[in-house]
Design goal:
alpha/beta, Rossmann fold, single chain, about 280 residues, 7 strands, seven-stranded parallel β-sheet
Length: about 280
Amino acid sequence: MQLKENSQLSILITGCSSGIGYDTAHYLHNLGYKVFATVRSQDDLLRLQNEGLTCYFLDVTKHHTITETLETILKQTNGTLDAVFNNAGYGQPGALEDISSDVLKEQFETNVIGLHELTRQVIPIMRKQGYGRILQHSSILGLISLRFRGAYNASKYAIEALCDTMRLELKDSNIYVVSLNTGPVTSDFRKNATKKFVQHVNFKNSIFSKSYEKELLDNHHDRKEKDPFTRDSIVVIKAILHVLKSNKPKTHYHITEATRILATLKRLLPKSILDKLLVKI
């Protein structure tokens, strides 16, 4: 693939209302990329348009909005799309025994099924043009598991399986599927996760109620992230730029020190010892 100049390269990004998606859209736009930012609320749509971004409505759980938005974008790009960043997603905290099947389905509808549907719809575009980059926002929790994160862990492990399989199926197609394994990055992720926890988990009557109060509620309500491992979104953006610019991007990008440390420990430590460490995090 002969890489295009920034001003010619197009990328669709989901989940741009805040955080990593928002920062990435603006950063790439300022570099001259043809950025198509997407959000799922009218207020956010107007806000991002007023900020100078090309922005469309796209809710990954409503598959017709994926089709409609892609059709609109392709009219502006002569039928091509160089890259997709599947960023939309959220975290649903709570012990698995406190997570109903319906809540687990909701987690998967956004984080996995929506990601898969957009990916499935862009692959024919990329096959036709003979190249492409598909960036999937996974997590360190797609490599290791933490307690009270079972629904989110499972969704990110599923993304890893999808990525591993698609790389085999897209071999020699010049379409690269990349997993971005992010660690803690400054965003509204934790605040939004706390809302989901309060909405869906009967935490006051749970056997884990005291742990919930200490680990999920007290730590999340109206606090600034002071975790020494938390990094700004630029660390993710740098990895994205490498994917977009490289002729042969890596299959995985372990982003933040926390991700690299835990991924290494998973490779080196016996499972029993790793579990003792992870239960304390």
